[in-house]
Each structure stands twice: as structure tokens, then as C-alpha cells.
Design goal:
With about 600 residues, the protein is an alpha+beta fold. The chain folds into 3 domains: about 1-45; about 60-245, Penicillin-binding protein 2a (Domain 2), CATH 3.90.1310; about 250-300 and about 315-600, DD-peptidase/beta-lactamase superfamily (Beta-lactamase), CATH 3.40.710. It is built from 22 helices and 22 strands. The strands form 7 sheets. Strands 2, 3, 4, 5, 10 and 18 form a 6-stranded mixed beta sheet that branches. A 5-stranded antiparallel beta sheet has the order 12-11-22-21-20, with helices on both faces. Strand 2 and strand 3 (about 80-90) form a beta hairpin. The longest helix has about 35 residues, at about 10-45.
């Protein structure tokens, strides 16, 4: 059949030709559609992101980490500064995965750790990724020697934190470490400045509390690179700006001396100016070396700290909560006098025990103290006197005055993770244990046992208020730049001078009168006032009548001593806690005495 220019619907060959054209048309339409859709995806949908990647691929930014601000003590002694260190970076598009094992052998990092670091790569960027921030000089040398076999590897120098006395100052200064993913997520948009993976951030102490001031503004060098990632020239640079320097209220000499006095104990010691709240020394033992934490910390080093049953990572001064023992008795004295429940002259007879209902509460002194007024009760720490006084006051009145003196709430110190302690009330017991407060619960809390829990710093703030005439001060460790010449007074007790003088006179007698519980705190030429405290850590009956030397250390009483001096115009207040140290007058008071003597006279007692 001849073709005349028209399709014959009934001709098989015409039908076949038409079908072929239709298939070709559909294929061409599909191809054009795919091209159009791809162009739309690349130029419109992904345009902005691809432009960003394109910029990154020919402009490489290398951050220059700003040095952190220096930290000084109150006299200008350098406590924390910066040293040069080296960090290892990898540019993923240039790095060959097969060289991961070689790099692992050089740095000591596991293959898994290296791969984990590189897993953050977005698949496009030529921006170097921090892999190891803790290279030693020997590792730097080996990396550079192997650089021809390790494409994409670079070493950059940075500043790293260095602490002049890293162990004595650990709980005050804190340390810096690499920021975690969780911190990055929580900080995003909440703190000034730019944080990225690999940055260092304050993790503890002053370094954490004053992160915004200490952290400077990072700089950067932007370099032009070719398609292979080779650097052609420097495009631009921004100089880093060092963080703000900070001066502390801490006296470095007193801090170091206090640490030496406490080195063989578990516990803490704090010194403060009672009139301003300026913390002069703060030592918690056992301690740890913050220089280790600010560099590469080996698993063995971490386990040594983490597994220590005495919790070296805890700042016992503000995070440890303990029964205050007899150091709590001035709270009862102030409450009793102000509520007119008792007078200073009122006497009782102490036979060595107090009976309430069918229960007997023993005094620490067998046979008792005889006839006792308030002054003698404070000087000789008569339990029976305060058992009776506490019963007359009741738990909620005791709590009222404990709260007034700063117990049961944060002091407001400019260090992180402070704990509030516990002041029990009848409502608290009902809510916590679903039980009413029984009269038999009160004698124990009247001598700082039972449910009472305080931090050493709270105790120091309360005694500072007694020493300074009735002002609760906010303790602080930073002198400059955030501190001002303003008033750090939180509140006034509203207790008369007459009442405070009665309590102060009793505290003076504790150290200086016959029968006082702290003769070891006496200093020739300086009048020291203070109070001992011996706080049980287990029920008394477990080792009743057992000589202290025969009691396992972990079951021995905690030993407290709180003091201030000079008596007429106090310039320093001190609290010392020796955990499981036995009687406060023997264990803690000599340490406090030496701290006071050193601070007021400027020499270490021989």
C-alpha cells in the first residue's frame, strides 16, 4: 500500500508508527520534566544552601580561639592564665578513611572516636573539624612528619587554661573542658557569643559562674582555597579579643596555708570577712588537680576521682549538708531570749540527762554540768540545758530563728550548685513522712542533730551575723569586675544588741574560760570567740561507751568549729569541719586557730 501523507486507522503499519511516535513523545516530555524539576530543585529549593556550600568550598574559615581572662586573688596574685597548646583538625573531603588507623596510632585516640568526630561532617563543607584538642608536642611532631600520608590533616595552636595551684584552688576556680552536645543545645540563643563543637566552656566553680565575662571574642582567618582544597592566600583575618580578667576576694596565701592544714583530713574550711561577706579562703578536701581536667584526662585519672568514696568533686563548703551539732545552740539561745522563754540568769540543774515522757536524752558529759545558766551552757556546751530550752520553744519557733539566721536556704554565693540544707518544721514532717511532729523529736534538733542539715557556708554566714552585730551578708568570691563598693547585706536579724552580746560573751568563753570546749583555739594577744560542735553520723547506742580510738573512722563523729576574731572588731570568721574527726575542740579548733593567726598576723604559726 502506498503512503499518501495520511494515516490509515486500519492499516497495521500506520498504527505501529503512531505508537512509536507516542512513546518517543512521552519519553521526551518525561526527560524535559526531569530536567526542569532538577533545575528547580537546585536553583530554587536548594539554591541558598548550595550557595553557602560553594562559598565554604572556596573560602575556608579557621577560628582563632580567644584566650580566657586571667584570674587573680585579692592581692593581684595570678591564679589562672593561659598556655599554648595544639589541636588536631581534619578537613573531611581531603581525608582518606584508610588512614584512620595511622592517625589513631599517632594520637592514641581510638578509631571509633576519630570516626565519631568526623560523623558531624555535613557532606559538603571544607571547614576543618576538631578531632583532638589535646595534642602533646611529641604528637605534633609525629603528625607533621606523617603529613604527606595524612591529607586533610592540620595542626593549629590555641590557648589552654593553666592553673598556678591547681589542687589547692580546685573547688573555687573550677575548670574548663570541651563543650558537650547537650550544652550546645541548651546554650543556643541563651548566652552571648558563638559556641561550636570543639569550643571550651567553664564546667565548674568560677570558670562556670563567670563564663560570659571570662570568655573572650574569638577571631578567625579566612583563606581562599582551590577546588582541591589547597590554600591559595589569606582572604581576611579578625583578631581575637581576650576575655575579661577577674579578681577574687580569696587570699592566695591563706588559701594555700588552709589547704596544707587540711591535707590529711576529709572535710572543709572557709574563712570570710564577717562585715562584707568576702570569702578569704575556701578549701574542700579531698581535692583534685584542675590542670588534669582542663587537658586530656585519662580513664585511669577519671576513675581515681570518680570512685573516691570521699567525693573529691563535691565542694563540701556549699554542697555538703551535715548535722551542725552543738554549733546550732546559739540559734536556740537567740530564740529563747528574744521570745522571752528564758533569761540569761535563769539556771537549771543538769544531772547529765534530760527526761521527756519515757525517754532519756543524755548529755555529752557524764554526771552533767551541775547548776547551769545560759553563759555556762554555751561555754561548756551543755546538752541538757538546750534539750529543755528547745522543748519550751517548739520546733516551729526554732525553725523561725534558724531561717532568720540563714539556714534552710541558699546563701546566694556566686558559685554554682549550692545546696539549701534543711530546717525541719511540723509541716515539713507531715508533708515528707505523713506523720505529725512529736514532742520527742524536738530535743535532738535542739542540739543540731536529728533532721537538722546545714552547709558549712550557712553556718559561717550565721556566725558572721552574730559577730557583726546582726547583718546577714551575702558571701561572694569575686571582687572585680562584678563586685562593687555597694552593700552585700541581705537582711538584718532584728535582734537586740543586748541579746547578741549575751551570745557573743558565751562564744568568747568557749575559747578563753576554764571549762570552755575550745582551749586549743586560743591565740596570745588575739581574743577569739567560737563554738565547737560534735555531730553524730550514726545512732549513739551502736558504740556506746566505746573509746573513740576503737571506733571505725567512718562511724566517728564529725568535728566542727566556728570562730571569729578579733572579738571586739571581727575581721575574720572561720568554719572548719573535719569529717569523722571526733570532738570539735580537739580536731577542728587548732586548724581554725592557725588560719586566724596567719590572716591577722601575716605569718604561718610555727
Amino acid at each position: 500500500m502506498s503512503y499518501n501523507g495520511e494515516f490509515n486507522a486500519y492499516d497495521p503499519e500506520d498504527l505501529k508508527t503512531r505508537r512509536t511516535y507516542r512513546i518517543l513523545f512521552i519519553m521526551m516530555a518525561a526527560l524535559i520534566s526531569i530536567i526542569v524539576i532538577r533545575l528547580w530543585y537546585l536553583q530554587i529549593y536548594m539554591g541558598t544552601q548550595l550557595e553557602y556550600y560553594s562559598q565554604n568550598n572556596h573560602l575556608r574559615r579557621i577560628d582563632i580561639i580567644a584566650p580566657r581572662g586571667d584570674i587573680y586573688d585579692r592581692n593581684g596574685v595570678l591564679l589562672a592564665s593561659n598556655n599554648v597548646s595544639y589541636s588536631l583538625y581534619i578537613t573531611p573531603p581531603q581525608f582518606k578513611d584508610r588512614e584512620t588507623k595511622r592517625l589513631s596510632d599517632i594520637t592514641g585516640m581510638s578509631v571509633t572516636d576519630i570516626s565519631s568526630r568526623l560523623s558531624t561532617w555535613d557532606g559538603f563543607s571544607y571547614t576543618p573539624i576538631l578531632v583532638d584538642p589535646y595534642l602533646s608536642w611529641e604528637q605534633v611532631s609525629e603528625v607533621l612528619a606523617n603529613k604527606p600520608f595524612l591529607p586533610g590533616i592540620s595542626v593549629q595552636w590555641q590557648t589552654r587554661r593553666y592553673y598556678v595551684n591547681g589542687k589547692d584552688m580546685s573547688h573555687v576556680l573550677g575548670y574548663v573542658r570541651e563543650i558537650s552536645g547537650g550544652e550546645l543545645a541548651s546554650i543556643d540563643g541563651k548566652r552571648p557569643g558563638r559556641y561550636v563543637s570543639g569550643d571550651f566552656i567553664g564546667k565548674y566553680g568560677i570558670e562556670r559562674a563567670y563564663e560570659d565575662e571570662l570568655r573572650g571574642r574569638d577571631g578567625a582567618i579566612v583563606k581562599l582555597v582551590d577546588a582541591s582544597g589547597r590554600e591559595i592566600r589569606t582572604y581576611t583575618s579578625i583578631n581575637p579579643v581576650q576575655g575579661e580578667s577577674i579578681s577574687l576576694t580569696i587570699d592566695a596565701g591563706l588559701q594555700s596555708y588552709t589547704a596544707s592544714l587540711m591535707k590529711d583530713y576529709v572535710g572543709c574550711a572557709i574563712a570570710m570577712d564577717p562585715s562584707t561577706g568576702a570569702v578569704l579562703a575556701m578549701v574542700s578536701v579531698p581535692s583534685f588537680d584542675i590542670n588534669d581536667f582542663s587537658s586530656y584526662l585519662t580513664p585511669d585519672q577519671w576513675m581515681k576521682v570518680a570512685s573516691n568514696p570521699d567525693h573529691p568533686m563535691e565542694n563540701k563548703c556549699i554542697q555538703g549538708t551535715f548535722a551542725p551539732g552543738s554549733t546550732y545552740k546559739p540559734v536556740l539561745a537567740i530564740a529563747g531570749l528574744n521570745e522571752h522563754v528564758i533569761t540569761p540568769e535563769k539556771t537549771i540543774h543538769d544531772p547529765g540527762f534530760f527526761v521527756l515522757g519515757n525517754r532519756i536524752y543524755h548529755d555529752w558529759k557524764k554526771g552533767g554540768h551541775g547548776t547551769v545558766d545560759m553563759h555556762k551552757a554555751i561555754v561548756q556546751s551543755c546538752d541538757t540545758y538546750f534539750y529543755r530550752l528547745g522543748t519550751l520553744l517548739g520546733v516551729d519557733t526554732i525553725a523561725k530563728y534558724a531561717n532568720l539566721l540563714g539556714f534552710g536556704k541558699l546563701t546566694g554565693i556566686d558559685l554554682p550548685s549550692e545546696k539549701p540544707g534543711l530546717v525541719p518544721t511540723s509541716a515539713w514532717k507531715e508533708q515528707t513522712f505523713h506523720e505529725q511532729w512529736y514532742p520527742g523529736d524536738t530535743p535532738s534538733i535542739s542540739i543540731g542533730q536529728g533532721y537538722d542539715l546545714v552547709t558549712p557556708l550557712q553556718l559561717l554566714v550565721a556566725y558572721s551575723a552574730i559577730a557583726n552585730g546582726g547583718s546577714i551578708m551575702r558571701p561572694h568570691v569575686v571582687l572585680y569586675p562584678t563586685a562593687t563598693t555597694g552593700d552585700y547585706t541581705v537582711s538584718r536579724l532584728g535582734i537586740s544588741k543586748k541579746i547578741l552580746d549575751v551570745v557573743r560573751a558565751g562564744l568568747l568563753g568557749v575559747v578563753n574560760e576554764p571549762g570552755g570546749t575550745a582551749p586549743g583555739a586560743r591565740i596570745k594577744g588575739i581574743l577569739v570567740a567560737g563554738k565547737t560542735g560534735t555531730a553524730q553520723v550514726i545512732r549513739e547506742s551502736k558504740f556506746k561507751d566505746t573509746p573513740e580510738s576503737m571506733i571505725p573512722v567512718k562511724y566517728r563523729d564529725n568535728a566542727w568549729f566556728v570562730a571569729f576574731a578579733p572579738y571586739s572588731a571581727p575581721r575574720i570568721a572561720v568554719v572548719v569541719l573535719v569529717e569523722h574527726g571526733g570532738h570539735g575542740g580537739f580536731a577542728s579548733s587548732p586548724i581554725a586557730r592557725n588560719m586566724i593567726d596567719y590572716y591577722l598576723r601575716g605569718v604561718r604559726p610555727q
